[in-house]
Write a structure and sequence with these properties.
By secondary structure, this protein is α/β, with parallel strands linked by helices. The protein has two domains: about 5-115, Four Helix Bundle (Hemerythrin (Met), subunit A); about 135-275, 3-Layer(aba) Sandwich (Rossmann fold). It is built from eleven helices and five strands; from the N terminus they run αααβαβααβααβααβα. α4 (about 155-165) links the parallel β1 (about 145-150) and β2. α2 (about 50-130) crosses α8 (about 210-225) and α6 runs parallel beside α8. The longest helix is centred in the N-terminal third of the chain and has 82 residues, at about 50-130. It starts with a helix and ends with a helix. Its EC number is 3.2.2.6. It catalyses: NAD(+) + H2O = ADP-D-ribose + nicotinamide + H(+). Keywords: Coiled coil, Hydrolase, NAD.
Length: about 280
C-alpha cells in the first residue's frame, strides 16, 4: 500500500477517533443528568404526601433510569468502537513506518547507484584526460590540498583560508589561482584532484546545491576510494548535519571541523600538522 494511501487512512481513523470521543463525552453528560434526575425523583418520592405526588416521582424515576441505562449502554458501544479504531490506527501507523523505511532504503540505494555511475564516468574521463595530456602537466605540479567550495563562500571564508594556507607553506590548489581565462574548468579540476594529497571540502548550503561542487565531490570520493589513507577533510560552514545528510550520509559520519567553533587559524594549524607528518 502506498504511503499516500496510508496517510489518508490514518487521517480518517484519527478523525473517527475524535468523533467517537466527542460522542462518549456527550453520553457521559447524559449519564450525569440522568443520575441527577434520579436523585431528585427519589427525594421527591420520600417527601411526598399524596398518592399523585408519589406516582409523579415514580414516573420521573423510571424515565431517568431509562435515560441512564441508555447513556451507559451507548458508552459501552462507543468504547468498543474506540478500541477497534485505536487498534486500526496503531496498525496503520506501523505500516506507515515500514513503508517509509522501505522508501528511504530504496531512495538511498538509487542515490548510491547514481553516485557509483557518476564516479565510474568521472574515473573514465580522468583516465582519458591523462592519456591525451601529452605535456605531462598532470605530473608536474603537486599540491598538499585541493579546496572544494562554492563561489558564494569565497569572500567570507574560502579566500582568507586559501591565503592563510599558502602563507603557512601549504601548497594549495585554489580555483581562483589555477583556472585561467579560456581553460577547461573540468580538466583543471580533475588535474587538481589528481595531484593533491588532501581534499578540503567546505560544506555549506550553497555547496550542496551546485553542479560543479557535486562534480568535484564525486571526483573526491573516487580519489578517496583509490588512495591509501583518507584524503577527505570536511569543513562545515553555516550548515547543519541534517542538510549534509540529505546530500551524502558518508559525509556526516566523518570527523569535521566547523567554522562555528574553529577559526581559520585552527584549520590551518591542523592541516599543517597533517601535511608535515607526511614529509
Amino acid at each position: 500500500m502506498s504511503i499516500s494511501m496510508l496517510l489518508s487512512q490514518i487521517k480518517s481513523l484519527e478523525t473517527g477517533i475524535t468523533s467517537i470521543n466527542k460522542k462518549i463525552d456527550a453520553q457521559k453528560l447524559k449519564e450525569a443528568k440522568a443520575i441527577e434526575k434520579i436523585a431528585k425523583a427519589q427525594k421527591k418520592s420520600m417527601g411526598a404526601k399524596t398518592i399523585s405526588t408519589i406516582s409523579s416521582a415514580q414516573r420521573e424515576y423510571q424515565s431517568a433510569s431509562k435515560e441512564l441505562t441508555s447513556a451507559q449502554a451507548e458508552q459501552v458501544k462507543l468504547s468498543k468502537q474506540l478500541v477497534d479504531k485505536s487498534k486500526g490506527l496503531t496498525n496503520k501507523q506501523s505500516d506507515l513506518m515500514k513503508a517509509q523505511a522501505k522508501e528511504r532504503e530504496q531512495h538511498q540505494k538509487a542515490m548510491e547507484t547514481l553516485q557509483q555511475k557518476a564516479l565510474a564516468t568521472q574515473k573514465s574521463q580522468i583516465q582519458e584526460i591523462i592519456k591525451v595530456d601529452t605535456d605531462n602537466t598532470f605530473l608536474d605540479k603537486k599540491y598538499d590540498v585541493f579546496i572544494s567550495h562554492a563561489s558564494e563562500d569565497k569572500d567570507d571564508f574560502v579566500e582568507p583560508l586559501a591565503r592563510a594556507l599558502q602563507e603557512a607553506g601549504i601548497d594549495t590548489w585554489y580555483d581562483s589561482d589555477q583556472i585561467g581565462w579560456g581553460q577547461s574548468i573540468r580538466q583543471s579540476i580533475d588535474k587538481g584532484l589528481i595531484n593533491s594529497r588532501f581534499c578540503l571540502i567546505v560544506l555549506s548550503q550553497s555547496f550542496l546545491k551546485k553542479y560543479w561542487t557535486n562534480y568535484e565531490l564525486n571526483g573526491i570520493f573516487q580519489k578517496d576510494a583509490t588512495t591509501d589513507g583518507s584524503v577527505i577533510l570536511p569543513i562545515w560552514h553555516n550548515v547543519t548535519r541534517d542538510e549534509i545528510q540529505k546530500l551524502n550520509l558518508t559525509l556526516t559520519d566523518m570527523l569535521a571541523m566547523n567554522t562555528a567553533i574553529h577559526s581559520t587559524e585552527d584549520i590551518v594549524r591542523s592541516l599543517k600538522e597533517l601535511v608535515d607528518a607526511l614529509k
